[in-house]
Amino acid sequence: RYAGQTIVNVTGIRRAESAERKKAELFKINKTLIGERAGTFGYNWNSIIDVPTADVVAENKRLGLPWHQAY
């Protein structure tokens, strides 16, 4: 589907959310997105990893986005 492309998987996880996520890296190779036959390569980019909770709440309110039920 994405032959010869570099794939960037962008997530919204933050280190403040859990002890396990505290260990997450900002940018990391995602081995599941590497396809030798298709020539794909991929990364995970945790784009808001260090954004404070208050900033996330404020931005959601500003944009009128519904809050996820987990919160």
Task: Write the topology of this structure.
Elements lengths: L5 E6 L15 E3 L11 E6 L6 H11 L8
Parallel strand pairs: 1-3
Antiparallel strand pairs: 2-3
Descriptive account of the structure:
The chain has one helix at 53-63, and strands spanning 6-11, 27-29, 41-46. The protein is an alpha+beta fold.
Helix content: 10-25%
Order of helices and strands: EEEH
N-C termini distance: 35 Å
Mean pLDDT: 93
Determine the structural class based on helices, strands and strand pairing.
Answer: alpha+beta
Tally the helices. 1
Largest sheet, described in full? Answer: 3 strands, mixed
Highlighted features:
single chain; 71 residues; alpha+beta; three-stranded mixed sheet
Give a short summary of the structure.
The protein has 71 residues and is α+β, with helices and mostly antiparallel strands. It has 1 helix and 3 strands.
